[in-house]
């Protein structure tokens, strides 16, 4: 497992891409999850998450995953459970002062972050202390549910290319209303005779016996 954890850090860029795609799929499944009930799927998804992330990252199921902000190195493997690091106890060669046989989780994290597209900025963001009440729950479900709710409240699609169009359309509707004001039809235009004459003209006939009438209603 430890070797796989190091492998994940070495390939943090690939995992970042995979996670982004996976998150998009999870967010798109939000209506289905909501229909089934998030409470119902929490347990099976959490078990699946524990198995997969346990193998790849030695995940401890803290319930608030920050892997994409820690270079794909799980901070819960730090013996001090630091969510921001490293501490001042890193030994020569980047080893942990508490577990001298293990490389510091945070030294690995900074290494992994430099390989990621947005890792260098993300690892600089200060993480809040871990909320122990969320332990054992699925981070995948929480993150995707929050993201879907965010999209709904802002009225934005999960597809960023549609946001610019939606914004531009909103502005256009404000300045150029699509519906023209309703004009009152003159009474004469509604009379039965006028209507039947117009209909006959468009059909090519001539109810009044006149000749040479075009489809536009003008005499030739
Ligand atoms: S940060 Fe939490 S959820 Fe993410 S891999 Fe570590 S223990 Fe698991």
State the end-to-end CA separation: 91 Å
Q: How is the quaternary structure best described?
A: single chain
Radius of gyration, in angstroms, nearest whole number: 32 Å
Give helix and strand order, one letter per element, not per position.
Answer: HHHHHHHHH
Helix content: 40-55%
Total helical elements: 9
Helix-strand makeup class? mainly alpha
Query: What are the bound molecules?
Result: iron/sulfur cluster
Q: What number is the mean pLDDT?
A: 84
Number of strands: 0
Tell me what the structure shows.
The chain is built from nine helices and no strands. The chain is elongated, with a radius of gyration of 32 Å. The protein has a domain of 153 residues. It has 220 residues and is an all-alpha fold. Helix content is 50%, strand content 0%. The C terminus is likely disordered. The longest helix has 20 residues. α1 runs parallel beside α5 and α2 crosses α7. The site of iron/sulfur cluster has 13 residues, from α4.
Ordered list of secondary-structure elements with their pairings:
Layout: H1 2-10, H2 12-28, H3 30-36, H4 38-57, H5 105-115, H6 119-122, H7 139-154, H8 161-175, H9 192-203
Helix pairs in contact: 1-5, 2-7
This protein binds iron/sulfur cluster.
Residues 53, 57, 59-62, 65-67, 74-76, 139 line the site of iron/sulfur cluster.
What key phrases describe this protein's structure?
mainly alpha; single chain; 220 residues; disordered C terminus; binds iron/sulfur cluster; 9 helices
